[in-house]
Amino acid sequence: MFAVILLGVGFIMLAAMFPVAIQQSKSNVDESEAASIARGMANVAQQLGQYTTSSNLFKPTGTFVYSIADPQFDGTNKLLDTFNLWKSLSGDLINADDPRFASVLLYKRPNGSSTAQLFVFVMQARTRDQFTVAQDMAVVAPSIYCNLQARGVNVSILDGIPDTVTFNGGDFNAVAEGCYLVIANDNISGPGNGWMNGRVYRVGSYVGGTTWELMPGNDFSADNGPNGVWNGGSGDDVTTLTNADAFVVGKDISTGSYEGPAQDVAFYTTFISVR
């Protein structure tokens, strides 16, 4: 009888492993496919960058990171209209071979440079079967996000145990565990201004209020700034970020309100040449 009980417990434990193993296997397959999609999307952008008119699409952004879909307002004035770039790439954002996946793009192009840094978020439909043009790509107005569009937020990041990010403003209702965070304008004063622009972090567990942990391996590390001098040297050491402008994607907003888990499953960045 005792042996039968032990055998039964063993079978139960063995059976419990199968769903976990299947889920992990599926996640690995999805992440591999997402990485491939990200590289493919970067190739599409690279080809677009070779057109003679591409300089009018990948407009210089200085040190800032911009979304390809958001005309970037400061509250009253349009700062940089990237809508033509959105229209040029929009036909490729939903993956044709597997519409469960889609891409959201950001970029940074220094003034006078023929090179742009591309940031690709690969999204997976979490609350439905697939992405669609009608439901995920309708840009109604600059102040209304479509689903396949980065959302602007304002953040403060603390290098601690654990590292945390507090969302001070913007569309932080989109934030969910697992979503990526890209610094667009670090708002650092002094010689280190812009040094952290383009840094990528990943949001971890929820702490409370509008504060989240940063995921281990994708968290914040103190940076010695552009002059390479640590604490107390030139005064440009970056040990925290305060009121930095950033982008997230996060939850689905295709129904008009944020719902579900983070759509982000992969992130990829590369440099492309722009004529």
Order of helices and strands: HEHEEHEEEEEEE
Q: How much β-strand is present in the residues?
A: 25-35%
Distance between termini? 78 Å
* Helical run tally: 3
Which class do the helix and strand fractions yield? alpha+beta
The largest sheet is: 6 strands, antiparallel, barrel
User: Could you say how many structural domains there are in total?
Assistant: 2
Task: Explain what the structure shows.
The protein is of the alpha+beta class and 275 residues long. The protein folds into two domains: 1-142 and 267-275, no CATH class; 151-248. It is built from three helices and ten strands, in the order αβαββαβββββββ. It has helices spanning 2-49, 83-89, 133-136, and strands at 66-67, 101-108, 115-124, 151-158, 164-170, 180-185, 200-208, 211-214, 240-248, 264-273. The strands form two sheets. Strands 4-5-8-7-6-9 form a six-stranded antiparallel barrel. A four-stranded antiparallel β-sheet has the order 1-2-3-10, covered by helices on one side. The longest helix is centred in the N-terminal third of the chain and has 48 residues, at 2-49. It starts with a helix and ends with a strand. Residues 20-24 have low confidence and may be disordered.
